[in-house]
Amino acid sequence: MLAKKACDNGMNEAEYIRLLISQKPNDYPEIRKILKELINEVNRIGININQIVFNNNAGLYSKEDKTQLIAYMRKLNQKVDEAVVKIGNQ
């Protein structure tokens, strides 16, 4: 759905999402809410990833850290995919 809307507007998906983000909040309040939630989730996951990287750099990286890092990356990908689907359905 997102790809079709982007194509209909002569843009790729990234350009279309940037266009949606640049609109006034009143223009697309649902999309703004979805993107705000995504940004908050990405920030939380990023903090956790930074802690794992810090442990790695300090020589404290464990197998559990690797497992957790993979889980965070999967969660991040899932959240981005969910946001793309929600935006595409707007």
Note down, in words, how this protein is organized:
- Helices cover 80% and strands 0% of the residues.
- The protein is mainly alpha-helical and 90 residues long.
- It has one domain.
- The chain is elongated, with a radius of gyration of 17 Å.
The shape is elongated
Number of domains: 1
Unreliable parts: none
In percent, how helical is the residue content?
over 70%
Number of strands: 0
Quickly give the structural class. mainly alpha
Order of helices and strands: HHHH
Fraction of residues in β-strands: under 5%
Largest sheet: none
Amino- and carboxy-terminal Cα gap = 9 Å
Rounded average pLDDT: 83
Total helices: the number is 4
Roughly how many Å is the radius of gyration?
Answer: 17 Å
Essential attributes:
single chain; 90 residues; mainly alpha; 4 helices; 80% helix
Q: What is the topological layout?
A:
Elements: H1 2-8, H2 13-22, H3 29-57, H4 63-88
